[in-house]
Structures
1.
Amino acid sequence: MLPRGSARSLLAGAAIALLSLAAAPAAAEQLARLNVSSFTMQADTAQPRLEVPFHIIYSIHVAQRVVALQNMILPPFGPLEIQGDEQHITSGTDGTDYRESLTVVSHQTGHISIPAAWMDAIDARDGKPKKFLATTPAGKDTLELDVSGGSLEPISIDGGAALVRMVLRTLSFVGGLCVIALLAVFVVARRRPHVERPPQAQGPVEVLSEPHPPPELTLISILANLRSEPTRAGSLAARARVWDSIGAPDGATLDDVLERPAAQEPRLRAVLRAAERAAFTHDADLSTAIATLIAALEAYVA
Amino acid sequence: MNAHPRALIEALERTIVGQRDVVRALVLAAIADGHLLLEGPPGLAKTLACRALAAALDGEFKRVQFTPDLLPSDIVGTRVFDQRDGAFATVLGPVFANVVLADEINRAPAKVQSALLEAMQERQVTIGPQTHALPDPFLVMATMNPLDADGTYALPLAQMDRFLLKVAVDYPSREEEAEILQRFAIRDTQPLRGVATLDDVRTWRAAARAIHLDEQLKRYVVDIVLATRHAKGDARPYVDRGASPRATLAIVNLARARALLDDRDFVLPDDVRAVAPDALRHRIGFSYRLQTDRVDPESIVCAFVASVPAP
C-alpha cells in the first residue's frame, strides 16, 4: 500500500501541473498591465512538523485597482500535500493586495525546496510583458523548509503478493494520471491555440542566466572582417556577429541586448551602440560610424 | 538657438507629476505634427498637461467640453448678423488655437466629432463662404473616459484613425500621489512659460522629417502593420480589421520624432518598437469577443508588435 500522503501529493502535483498547462497559453494573450510592487512567498514556520498542517502564503501588491489577478502560476510542492487554498483580494486607493494562503502538510521529514510561484503580466512601467517571480522576505527565489518531528511512515509490506499488488496499483494509478493529463493537454490545445509569446517576455528569464562575455577571438575576427569590408554590408554582418557572440536571439533590438548580463561591461556596450549606429545610420555618416565601431572593437579587444 | 525638445519634456514634468507617457506623447505628437487621443478616468492631469504644453510653447490654448447638445458651430465658429453694420461677421470657434483640448470627445454626437476631426485632418475650416487656415502648429488632444459609457457616441474607426497616437492614462503611483499632494496643496502650480517657441516646433518638425529611415526599418514597419491585418493564432478571433496605411505613416513619424528626442539623425529598431503600440492601439478593429472573453486589447497589440522580429 502506498503511503497515505504520497498518493494525495501525486494528485495535488498533477492537478497543479494541469493548472499550469492550462494557464500558460492564456498568459500570452490576456496579460494585465500592472505595477507589481511586491510579490512574496513565505511559510508561517520555517521548521514545520511532520503531519502538522502549516501555511504557505503568497502576497502580491499591485498599484492598480483590479478585481482579480490572473496568470499567477503556483510551483509544484513536491512532497507537500495541499489541504486547502484561500484567496483574498482587497483594493484600495493605493492599489490591490492579493493574498493566497495554502494549507499544506508534509508526510516526510527532511529538507524541502519549493521553487518560486510566478505571474505573467505586462509591466506598466515599461509596457513589456514580464514574468514576475515570488521571492522570500530574504530575497531568495526558493522557499527552504526543514520538516522535523518523526520518521517516514513505514510501508506495510505483507509478503511478495502485497508488494506486487502495490506495484500494480502504483502503475495503474500513474497510468491513469498520464491519460488524464494527455486528455487535458489535448483539450486545452484544441480550445486555445498557441499564441506566440512576445520576445520581450523572455527578458527577465534570461537575466537569470549566467553572463558570458563574447570571446575575444570572435571580436578580433569581427574586427578583421570589418577592416577588410568597411561597408554597410560589412557593418551589418559585424552587428549580427556581435549580437550572436553575446547570445542575443534573432529579432533582438539594442535595448534588449543592452539588458543582457553579458552586455554590462562599458566597453562592450560601446561596441554594441556603435554596431547599431553603423547598421542603421545614413550613408553620409556611414564611414564615421564604421570608424567608431572599429575603434570601439579595438578598445574592447585591447 | 533653438530649444531642444527635451527641454519641453523637462518643463512639462516640472508641472505634471508622473504621467510620463502622456508628457512624452504630447511632445512626440508636437514633433510629428499629429494629434493625440488620451483614454483614462477623469482627474489625471490631462487638461493640465495640455495647458502646460501650450504655455511652454507660448501658444494659445482652448478647451472644449464635449456634450450631447454641442453643435459643430460651437467648435469651428459661425457667422452672426451684425445689426450695426447690417452684414454677417465671422466668429471663429475654439478650434482656432495652437493646442486644443477636446474633453470627452465621445460625449458629442457624430456630426460634432466630424467637424473637429475634419479640421484636424484638413488644417482648415470653412465657415460660410470663407475658408480659414488653422494656426500652425495645431495640436488636438482629445480625451475619452472609459468608465462612463452611458450616453456616449463611440468614435468610428475611421475617425479614430485621424489621431496620430493613443495613450492610455493610468492612476499615479503612491509616491506620485503623495508628490501631487505636496506640490498642489501648498500652491497652485503655474505652468512654465516660454520654454520653446512655436517656431521651435516647426524647426523640430522639419528636422524630424529629415531623419534617416533605413530600408530594413521600412520593411519592419510594414510587417508590423501587416501583422495586424493578418492576425494569427489566438489573436485572430479578437480582430475584425487591421490597421490602415495611416498607421504605417504614424509609426514612421513617431519613430523619427523619438530619434530626434534622442539626438539621433537616424531611426533605430527600438524607436519603431517603442512607438508602434501607441500608433496601433486605436487603429485595430477589435471584435465583440474581446469584451466577452475579457481579453486585454493591449496584450493583443503587444503580441502583434512582438510577432515581427526586429531587423
Note: The mean pLDDT of chain B is 89.
2.
Amino acid sequence: MRVLVCGVGYRFLRDHAVGVHITDTLATQASNGIEFEDLGYHPVGFTQNLQDRPPYDRIVFVGAVERGRDPATVTTIKYDHVLPPDEEIQERVGDSVTGSISLDNLVIVAEAFKALPEDVWIVEIEPADETWGDGFSPEIEAKLPEIMETVWSLTKL
Amino acid sequence: MCFKNLPIEFDAAGNATLKPGSANPYSYIETPAPTPIEDDPARMREMFARNGAVRRVDFDPVTRVAGALAFHTVVDLENRQVMETASMATLFRGYEIILKGRDPRDAIFISSRACGVCGGVHATASALACEMAFGISPPPMGVVARNLLLSVEYLYDHPIHLSLLAGPDFSEPAVRETNPEIWERAQNTRTTGRKMHGYEFMSELMTDLTPLTGKLYLEGLYYTRLAREAYVLIGGKYPHPQTVVPGGVSTTIDPSDLNEIMLRVIKYFDYGRKTAAIWDDIAGFFYEVNPKYRDIGTRPKSMIEPGQWDDPYAYDGTFANCDDWGRRRWAPPGVIVDGEMVTTSLQMLNAGVEEFVEHAFYEEWTGDGQSQRFATDPSGNPLSPYHPWNKETIPKPTATSWKEKYSWSTAPRWDRQAMETGAYSRIYAAALTGGADFRDSPYLNSTGHSMQINLPKATLPNDPIEWHVPECWGAFERNRARAYCILYTAAICYDNLLLAYDLLRKGGPDAKMSTPYKIPKDHQIGVGLWGAGRGYLTHHMEIDNGVIENYQILTPSTWMASPKDPFGNPGPYEEAVLATPLLENYEKPEDFKGIDVLRAIRSFDPCMPCTTHLHMDDRTITREIISCACGSDGPHEH
C-alpha cells in the first residue's frame, strides 16, 4: 500500500501555508507506505515526478483554497476526475510552468497528463488571513488539530 | 557620450559629471497624457457613428503569460488599427517593503519568491548585491557554479515561452480560427528547415504546436524537465534554490554532478538547432504570406541588457570594476538605442536608470526631485533622484484611470527612453559587441552584426548556426531570437561545464565553492546586475547596522509592462500594440479575437508578479487567479 500526502501552498502567506504545515508536521509520523511531500512547487514538475515513481494507491492533497466559504471551513472531497475544457487546462499548464502554485492547478494538470491514481482525496481549507507572514489566523489555528486528524485518517486505506 | 536626455556630460578623461547651471538638474515638466477616447465626447460620437467598427477590447487577464497582466485597447476594426493602449500590472509586489529591516542574506531567499520561473536569478542578483555591500567575491568555482545554475535556468525558461506560451499562437487551431486562408496556404507550403526539424509542410509544424496534444508542445514540457533536473544538482531546489549565498554557492560539486548536468545539457544541442529552424520557418512563412506581419509588435530597437555569466577570473564583486568584469561576461551588458549600441558600461547603464510613477499606483518619493539619498554612485557618477538606489516604494492604490493612474508597474526609463529587454536583447547586445571586445569562447563568435554558435555535433547535422541582427523588429523576431538563445545558452553552459571539470582537476583555492564573510555593521550599498532569462534584472540594496535599509527590485516586465511615462511616452507593450496592424480575418466586429495583439504582447514573454498577495490598509489589492474546477462526488464541510 502506498499513500502520498501532498501539502500545497505558499510558506510566507499566513493561512495559505496551512497545507505545507500539515505535511511538515505529519512527516514525522511517516512510515512504510505513507509519504508526505511539500508541493510548493509547480504542478508540471510534480506530474513529471509522479510519472517516474511506482504508482500510489491513494493521493491526498491538502491546502488552502479561497472559495467564499466561512473562514476555516474544511472541505473533504473525493476527486471525480472530471476535467475542465481543454482551453482551461492549457491556461493552467501555462500558470503552472510560470510558477502559480494552487491546489486546483495541481490536481487538474496532474489529471490531464494521467498521472493520478483512481483514489484521490482533496482536503481544502478556507483561508481567513492571506497577508504576508508566518503563523495562522486564530480561526485556522483553532482548526489545526481537526485538519491534522482529517488528513491522517485519509492515510488509512 | 551616451546620454541625450539626462543632465550628464563627460569630461576629457571620460568621467561623468552633472551638466552645470541647474539647481535641480533632474527636474522635468510633465507632459499631460492624451485624453482617453472614452473621456472624449466628440470622439465617442464619431465611434458610435461608425457602427461598432471602433470598439474597446480589453484582454483581462492576458492568458498564457506569467502572472497577472491586463491590457486595454481601443481598436478600429474597419481600418485595422489599434487606437489606444494601456498596460496594467494588476498585482502589487511588496518585496521591497517585506525586506526592510531584515538580514541582507534573507533577501536571497525571499526575493527568490518573486517569481516562479526566475527564482534562481533573483536569488543570484541578491547575492551579487550582498557581495558588493560586503566587499567579497566568490572563488572561481563559485562563479562557475552560478553560471551553470543560471544557464540551465534559462534552458528551462526559453522552451516554456516558445512551446507553451507563444507557440500556441501559431498553432493549427489558432491559425485555422483567426486566418483560415493562412492555414490553407500552410498545407501547400514546404518548410525550409526540414533537415533540422523534420516537418515537410508548414501545416504539419503548426499542428504540432497545438496545446496539450502537439508534439512540439509536449517536447517543450519535456525540456523544462531536463533543465530542472540539471538545476537541482547544484541548486538543491527549483525554482527557489537553497544553495545561493553571498560569496558563492553553499554546496559541493564532484565530477559525477557535472556528468549528470552534461548528460542533460548536450540534449539541448539538437533541441536548440531544431527550435531555431522551427522559428525561422514560422517567421519566414508569415512574412511571405503578408509582409505586414513584420509590423506585429514592432517598436524601436531600443533595449537594455545588464549581461550575465561572469568570467570567474574577472568578477570581483566591486562597483569600481564593474565595467571591466561586465564586459568579460559571456553575455556582455549593453544599451541599444534605435539599433545602435550606445554603451557597454555597467556604470553608465546603472546611472541612466530612473523609475517614474505618474501613472502607477505609488506615491512620488522625491518631493519633485528635491531630495535623494545618493547624489552619486560609489564611483562618483551622478544619480537621479528617481534612480533605484534613491527610490522608495510607497503604494497608493486609487481608482483606475487611463489618463491618471492605471498600473502597479512603475515606468522605468533609461536616459528617459522606454526600453525592452529579454533573451533577445542578450544575444542582440552580444552580437553587436563584436570582435576583440567579445570574450574568447570556442563556441561563440560575435561578428558585430551576428552571433555564430559552434557547438560539437550531436545527432543532427552540424551545419553552421548564426543569428543575424534583424532588419525589422517585432514579435516574430523576438521569438526567433529567443529560439536561437537556446543554443547560445547551451554553448555557455557547455563552456562552463568544461571550466568546472578543469577547476576540479586542478583543485586548490580556485576550486573552492565560496568565500567566508562577515556582514558589515556600517552603511554600505550594493547592486546585483544580472539579467534574468526574460531580460534585465537588478537588485539595489542599502544596508546599515547589519540590516536592510532599502531594497529595490527592477524586473524585465517592469520595464516592458510599464505604463506611460511623464514625458508622454508609452511603455513598450503599449507602443508595440499601437503599431500592430490587425491582420486577423474577421467579417464582423463580433468575430474579432485579437490574435495579433496577443502575439505582440506574448512575444515579450511577460512575467508579471504572481506570488504575492498583500493587503494595504482596508483596500484589497489582490486578485484571485484560481477558480474552482475540481470535480467532486459531494463535498463534506465541517
Note: Chain B is about 35% helix and 15% strand.
